[in-house]
Write a structure and sequence with these properties.
Blueprint: H1 26-41, E1 46-48, E2 58-61, E3 73-83, E4 87-94, E5 97-107, E6 109-115, E7 121-127, H2 128-141, H3 152-169
Antiparallel strand pairs: 1-2, 2-3, 3-6, 4-5, 6-7
Family: Belongs to the polypeptide deformylase family.
GO molecular function: peptide deformylase activity
Pfam families: Pep_deformylase (PF01327)
Length: 174
C-alpha cells in the first residue's frame, strides 16, 4: 500500500467528472487500500479517487472517532438515490483545500447505492457525519467542491489564495 500525493486547489483535475468503475478487481482494491492509507496519513475522514488524480467513481470514508477502532468504508460507483428534505449544517474541510473550513448546509439524511470492494451491491441509509461525508465525497466525483456551497465572494477569496500559493509552488491552476 502506498500513500499518494494529494491534488490541491486550484488544480483543474479537481473539476473533472469521474468515470464509473467497470469491474471491481485487484487493481481497484489496491487503489482503495492506497486511498485509505493516504486518507489516514493526511489525516482525514474521506477521500475521493480524483483527489489523488484518478478520475474513477470510488471513495473511502472512516468517520470513527479518535481512539476508536478504525472503520474503513469503500464505496464504488456510489449514487445518492434519496435525499431528505430536512437539512443539517456541518463545518466542512477538505484535504484538497488544506486548512480552510466553512459551514455547509446539506440534506440531513441520504440513501446511497454502491458496490463494495468485492463488487457486491449495497444500499446504505446515512445521517449525521456519515451523510455529510458521503455527499462531500460524491460531489468530488462530480467535479464539485464544498466551496461551491459558500458565498461567491468567500469562494473567490479562497480560490485566489490557493491560486497564489500554487504559483509560488509552480503548480497548474484552474
Amino acid at each position: 500500500m502506498t500513500i499518494k500525493p494529494l491534488i490541491i486547489l486550484p488544480d483543474p483535475v479537481l473539476r473533472e467528472l469521474s468515470k464509473p468503475v467497470e469491474t471491481v478487481n485487484d487493481d481497484i482494491r489496491r487503489l482503495a487500500d492506497d486511498m485509505l492509507d493516504t486518507m489516514y496519513d493526511a489525516p482525514g475522514i474521506g477521500l475521493a479517487a480524483i483527489q489523488i488524480g484518478v478520475p474513477r467513481r470510488i471513495l473511502v470514508i472512516d468517520v470513527s472517532k479518535d481512539g476508536e477502532e478504525k472503520q474503513p468504508l469503500v464505496f464504488i460507483n456510489p449514487e445518492i438515490v434519496r435525499s431528505a428534505e430536512e437539512r443539517s449544517v456541518y463545518e466542512e474541510g477538505c484535504l484538497s483545500i488544506p486548512d480552510y473550513y466553512a459551514e455547509v448546509e446539506r440534506p440531513a439524511e441520504i440513501t446511497v447505492n454502491f458496490l463494495d470492494r468485492d463488487g457486491k451491491a449495497h444500499t446504505v441509509e446515512a445521517d449525521g457525519l456519515l451523510a455529510t461525508c458521503l455527499q462531500h465525497e460524491i460531489d468530488h466525483l462530480n467535479g464539485l467542491l464544498f466551496i461551491d456551497y459558500i458565498s461567491k465572494l468567500k469562494r473567490e477569496m479562497v480560490i485566489r489564495k490557493f491560486t497564489k500559493a500554487a504559483k509560488v509552488r509552480g503548480a497548474k491552476a484552474i
